[in-house]
Write a structure and sequence with these properties.
This protein has two helices and 29 strands. It has one domain: Neuraminidase, CATH 2.120.10.30. The N terminus is likely disordered. Strands 2, 22, 23, 24, 25 and 26 form a six-stranded antiparallel β-sheet that branches. With about 450 residues, it is mainly beta. It is about 10% helix and about 35% strand.
Length: about 450
């Protein structure tokens, strides 16, 4: 009798799982990425997922000399290869390029959704131990290939953003902003990093970025959320999902802007000096929601996370609710499409890639995991126009071909910078390459 009961219960459980799966997974996009991009994207009703749609491209790398595709009039070559998860790039005053070879620290493993994510993210390379290294790349003969590749600074903790400020190099580790003395032309730093301010430990979003403010007095540091929608409690999100302003001399800081689920790339608009960032929005509302975005940031801004998205649309999954906040939520300037995982950001100042790419922003889109079919996996250019410079037109693909015909990932772009020659450098953390995009000869 007991055996029969157990069998019946097992069948009921299996049926229940099947029904839930059928209702919630996988969710296939009904809109194109372009329809959910631009200054006025289409925002459809959410399709909440109990089991997340997971569609991560299997990493296979670049075989037999293959390379990404580029827009007409451009050419691409490997600036440096044989790296270990190159994520972020920074150019020093003498033209040397620093690349952060880095990866996520161990991720939390509680909850069924988190465990499922960890399995698939592990297959995508996220479980590979971090090299915890910044490497220096130098092109001594001007042929567009780094002939010097040497460890510059080691012993870090999932480093990401880098910036030179008042004679010191600042590095955004996952749990602290640190600094070391810098001497121009040096190929190695052996000094022990000094902690400037602590940062909340990794959580789901581990990468921290840092740039200098326009007035040269403070630094901006981005810190992503620990979760998707604060499902582990709001206490776990204190001083996260924000951009911090840091006074490095005094080692003081404040929250500069909040409600930003995972801000990553930051840059100052060269026309007016204003701070801009790209942000990864929330998951599990369907393949058409929510658009990642590009936006300018002012002190005191709040962009709604976790309660609201895209200027005030409520996320009913978040408890407790926060009705008073809705009227103050700032709408982003520009949508990049759903789940594209926008990480890299640099303005086109100094780029010599033709008139098409003369005024705007380059954005590295690492690629989706919670959308079917995949989105991102490319570098795009967002044109800016007008006396008050803001983005207007749809994104233009600059570098593509990261997915092969089978839907496998030959590469995934992250950081982007304009180098001293006017070329665009792209960190590819699956291909383990830094690519250089130049005007075709």
């Amino acid at each position: 009798m007991r055996k029969h009961v157990l069998i019946v219960l097992g069948i009921i459980v299996l049926i229940g799982i099947g029904v839930v799966t059928w209702l919630a997974w996988p969710d296939t996009a009904r809109l194109s990425v372009d329809q959910v991009a631009g200054a006025r994207p289409t925002i459809e009703a959410p399709r909440e997922q109990t089991i997340p749609t997971v569609d991560i491209a299997k990493p296979v790398g670049w075989a037999n000399g293959a390379r990404p595709s580029v827009a007409p009039g451009l050419a691409i070559q490997a600036f440096a290869s044989g790296l270990d998860h190159p994520r972020w790039l920074y150019q020093l005053p003498n033209g040397d390029v620093l690349v952060a070879e880095t990866n996520s620290p161990p991720r939390p493993s509680s909850g069924i959704v988190q465990r499922v994510m960890n399995v698939f993210l592990g297959r995508a390379g996220a479980a590979v131990p971090s090299a915890n290294r910044i490497t220096l790349l130098r092109d001594t003969n001007g042929d567009g290939v780094a002939d010097v590749k040497t460890p510059f600074l080691t012993g870090l903790n999932s480093p990401f953003g880098m910036v030179l400020f008042d004679g010191q190099l600042y590095i955004a580790d996952t749990d602290a902003l640190v600094r070391v003395p810098y001497q121009e032309g040096a190929t190695k730093i052996t000094a022990k990093p000094e902690k400037v301010v602590p940062l909340r430990p990794a959580g789901n979003h581990w990468a921290r970025n840092v740039i200098a403010s326009g007035d040269g007095k403070t630094l901006f540091v981005s810190v992503g959320s620990a979760s998707n929608i604060a499902e582990n409690g709001l206490g776990a999100e204190k001083n996260r999902a924000a951009i911090l302003q840091v006074w490095p001399k005094d080692k003081n800081w404040r929250v500069y802007a909040g409600g930003l689920r995972n801000p990553n790339g930051m840059a100052l608009n060269p026309v007016n000096g204003r701070l801009w960032t790209v942000v990864n929005e929330r998951d599990m509302l369907g393949s058409d929601l929510v658009p990642d975005y590009l936006t300018q940031i002012e002190f005191g801004d709040h962009f709604g996370w976790p309660w609201y998205y895209w200027g005030g649309y409520p996320d009913n999954r978040v408890q407790p609710t926060n009705p008073p906040l809705q009227q103050y939520v700032k709408r982003p300037d520009y949508a990049l499409g759903p789940h594209v995982a926008a990480l890299g950001l640099t303005f086109s100042e100094g780029a010599k890639l033709g008139d098409t790419f003369a005024r705007g922003a380059f954005i590295g889109e690492h690629g989706s995991w919670n959308r079917k079919p995949p989105s991102g996996y490319k570098v795009v250019f967002v044109p800016f126009a007008g006396a008050f410079p803001v983005p207007k037109a749809k994104p233009v693909e600059v570098v593509g071909g990261f997915l092969n015909a089978k839907g496998e990932a030959r590469g995934r772009p992250v950081g982007v910078i304009v180098d001293k020659t006017g070329g665009l450098l792209v960190a590819d953390d699956v291909g383990n390459v830094v690519w250089k995009v130049s005007a075709a000869k």
